[in-house]
Amino acid sequence: MAEDTLPQQELPLPFPELSGDLPLLPARMVNEYQYCPRLAYLEWVQGEWADSSDTVEGRYVHRRVDKAGGDLPATDDASDEKFHARSITLSSNRLGLIARLDLVEAEGNRVTPVDYKRGRRPHVQRGAYDPERVQLCVQGLILEEHGYLCEEGVLYFAESRERVRVVFDEELRALTRNAIDGLRLVAAGGQIPPPLEDSPKCPRCSLVGICLPDEVHSLLRQDVTPRPLAATRDAALPLYVQARGAKVAKKGETLEISVEDKPIQSVRLVDISQLAILGQVYVTTPTLQELMSREIPITWHSFGGWFTGHTVGIGHKNVEIRTAQYRASFDPQVCLRLAKGLVAAKIQNQKTLLRRNWKDGSAPDVIIDGFQADLRGVQRAQNLGELLGTEGQAAARYFGNFSQMISRGDDDSLRFDFEKRNRRPPTDPVNALLSYGYSLLVRAWTIALTAVGFDAYRGFYHQPRYGRPALALDMMEPFRPLIADSSVIQAINNGEVRPSDFISVAGSVALTEDGRKRFIATFERRMGQEITHPLFGYRVSYRRLLELQARLLSRHLLGEIPEYPNFTTR
User: Fold this and answer.
1) 277 neighbors 298 (Cβ within 8 angstroms)
2) Which pLDDT does position 6 carry in this prediction?
3) Cα(542)–Cα(536) distance, integer angstroms
4) What is the pLDDT of residues 214-230, one digit of tens each?
């Protein structure tokens, strides 16, 4: 038989060694993929993360094994001496994997990885769930690549203090290789896997408010009632500092505010969602570094309240959202479609606010009919210029009747008069309140969009200009009447802000320091107010709603849902 006709022998083909900038897959991500492919994509590809009680407790359980200690034996060690090594990081370019091993028990060159888990041992077949077994098997594969003999591992469940032996048989190795290949495939494909449907895994998942599984299915099929997964309590709130010459300094786990070196207030860092600086306030460098490391944004305002910028840490890693945003922003038809939805929602909410708060009886039909005509004009608009004209007509109708929502007291000194909307500068107290409310709202939207992964300065309706957060201005349009205007009406009608809380200089009217403080309290109370979401049916605060709407926009731009669901109230 000729040499070139000899039967070809079967040889194992090794996985090609990683080169270039391809990242190693962490063992934990393989675990996540086996648990839920969408969760792994959100964390690994899009860089999303959110803590829950489970993740915090898990870190606490790992506090001991996270302290490195001991060394692995040499691979050619033939002795019977026993070794223990903690918090060992190993990787393999050939396998394309990396793992941090909690504990490795070794006897000679035979090693056993021990992975610590929070909670109690589950009473299931094989003693543990597949994601944990797969993660442990990844550690075993890496140890074998380093020349050790590794035939099994151990899962240690901290709450029940039980060890579960996991044998690395061929079935588990095949399951692990499939998970590794599957994660690589979805990461390279750049398409997020669909959410799980009505899964019991979702309610306890820390990323459920980011993933939005029920919400996505509801918007796609209209026959799914979302579970109240996204409605959470706002444990942390914004901290405003406006005292002239104040200093903000980190002191342990708190921020201490002082004036002329005299402490006036101390706030725990865990209770702060953002730090808002108004005017001449000094923030120390350690404070800036600590807030950025915790991803707590700092917003900067002029003394009069104008939003001038914000400081964040390294920023969001989800480049997919920004890529989709930029692509859509250069498509005139996409911009027009999104802008129409935003303007229509704004007009609808303006009409609703007037109807609800009209002081003398009910709003005349001619005004309501006028808004309906404006909504029809929005749908007929052929370009952004026409849309802007229609929005202007609706705004003139709305602010022409804005005074009908303001109580008319008997005391002239407590009366607020409003004739028309003006700005830059506002010439009366009501306009000053509206301008200040819009400044607070654009700041809130800028933070929400940045936290989700958007570029707040590239919009669809508002054209980009230097220093103007165009996307934040876009997204706030439907919420101007619901949050800012409503806060103004409440502050005036409840007597929280009075005409004496304003100063007038050269024809410009602005809030005093005390008036600003009281209006901020009104605005933040409105942000914390819970409403029933008209699409999903669960209760959610306005503060949480901004993030929810930003994430729904990302789901639309990434192609998961066909339309962005604008928020309108009835």
Assistant:
1) yes
2) 42
3) 14
4) 888 888 876 666 776 54
